[in-house]
Amino acid sequence: MKNKNTLAIGGLGLALAMGLTTTASAQDFKPKAKGQFIVTSRVTSVAPDETGDIRTAAGADSGLDVKVGDDTIPSLGFTYFLTDNIAVEAILGTSRHEVRAVGGNTNVQVHSTWVLPPVIAAQYHFNPKGRVSPYVGAGVNGMIFYNSKDYNGFKVELDNGLGYALQGGVDIALKGNWSLNADVKKVWFSTDAKINNGALKSEVDLNPVVASVGLAYRF
């Protein structure tokens, strides 16, 4: 499911890029520049690439692993250019994920949670004066779990924390101040899960792939 969501987002971005670049090729556009502020509205797929086995308080393997579901959400990006090439972006959005315990004949939902995962990244933009301008970035992210709900007699507690992210994307200028954006981030984040007041535990590497397409306005 997570691969399908990511590929669908990427395919949509490619199709839009090809079509809109053709129609906008003869039109004026606003290039990237120092002091510019960009707001980007995106559709974002959040697909955890999780690993985490569930162990007893004494450390024995329970035979169960943690499985975390995907989500597709709206998100916003706010970018400020320090120079023509160097920018800082803050990304905001919130996603909801189902958490399951799986293994053998067991596949049971134990938890669901909303996650606020803000990312702040430093970016380098290539070809800032051109219509097609790719970029790369690196930064930090936070994971804040809220509005959580337990299921099937389980009580799950997740630790908030910080991780880091790498980013790659492309901006394709349209007419005037508008541009199309496609963006992929890889986030590395681990959380400690305490289950049933510590009777069970797991260190879960969430490590989501975050793929987005959207429209941006350059101020």
Q: Which sequence of strands runs across the widest sheet?
A: 1-4-5-8-9-11-12-15
| Low-confidence residue ranges | none
The helix content is: 10-25%
Total DSSP helices: 1
List keywords for this structure.
single chain, 219 residues, mainly beta, Porin, 8-stranded antiparallel beta barrel, 1 helix, elongated
Q: Care to describe what's here?
A:
The chain has 219 residues and is mainly β. The chain has a single domain, classed as Porin (Beta Barrel), CATH 2.40.160. The protein contains one helix and 15 strands, in the order αβββββββββββββββ. The protein has one helix at residues 2-24; strands at 37-47, 53-56, 61-68, 71-81, 86-93, 95-103, 106-116, 119-125, 132-150, 156-158, 161-173, 178-188, 190-195, 200-205, 209-218. An eight-stranded antiparallel β-barrel has the order 1-4-5-8-9-11-12-15. A hairpin with a 4-residue loop joins strand 13 (190-195) and strand 14. The protein is elongated, with a radius of gyration of 20 Å.
